[in-house]
Specification:
370 residues, Nucleotidyltransferase, domain 5, 5-stranded mixed β-sheet, two-stranded antiparallel sheet, 51% helix
Amino acid sequence: MEDAATLWAKDPNSESDSLTNAAELVKEAVFGRLEEPLIVAPSFGSTQRKFSCGRCPVGDLSARASHQFSGGTVMEVVYPRCSGFDVHKCFVVVCLSVVEQGQRHKELRQFSTMTNEILALKEWLKASRCTHIAMESTGVYWKPIHHLLEASFEIVLVNAQHMKNVPGRKTDVKDAEWIADLLQHGLLKASFIPSKEQQAVRDLTRTRMRLLQERTRLINRIQKALEDANLKLASVGSSVMGVTGQAILRALVAGEDDPKSLSQLARGKLIRKEDQLQAALQGKLAAHHRVQLEELLQLIETLDHSIARFDREIAERLRWLDPLIERIDAVTGLARRSIARVVGRTRLGHEALPRCHSCRVLDRHLSGQP
């Protein structure tokens, strides 16, 4: 058998080829496992002939980074003129990053979130010929900035969790600079930003849902007051806010406390349970209980009017989607109110069906396709 020296003499490039092939395989494996590209810098030791990979901060064109990861490939600059926003409640930090002739220039500025300051920020970016902006979806603070700048720039809204998954960030790098670096090299995944009309529908449906939750909480308070007075209305009827329940509650607030008289207010199926209802209403309702019930009933009535107004407003704004809503309404278990919430959280219109997986599945179901 030939030794290693003999093999090297016959084919001096064999080891170099093997190492190069190994480097390509490792690089392919690394890029195949990650959603976002990563700078991989292969290096070969002069004596040990070992392959190694190193990570460098994405978008860092400094001489230090180039020296540390010599032999790697500098990532392509996708947006030569862009900026990253670090949005806070009272101020926003902006990093303008410009790449020209292989040189990067960064400029950091801080602006107030007042409208006049945001407009001044807009003029500065336009004068600098900035084309793209990236910012994190921080609560609701990004919304007014987006509304004022969306007509002049291409805005990329980023999920903060997605940014954390991109490797290479250093602790001393400011958020605005890091966002600008990632955007400049196309490493940010843009979140869906609904249109103004859809944002209005989304806000209305969410507010309506909160009002419904508040209404449920008030009903639970009524139930607690009844239990405190040992009135077992909920043990006989399915809901204390049904037709019979509301009639009995208003009679209690008015001062009526005779169980027989209260049981005669039964309506619907509860007429057959008049005896059970009379036994359930033999309690002791104190004066403060009546005050609680009166105020809670007034609050629930106010919420009912507000919820009805939201229903009318949502229906009016979704009227142009009635054909699509009617098709979805054919699915068992989906009411129009639930459909309105779904529409508010997904892309609107028939043109969204090819892009939305859930809409594609629903469309096949409605058309009878497998």
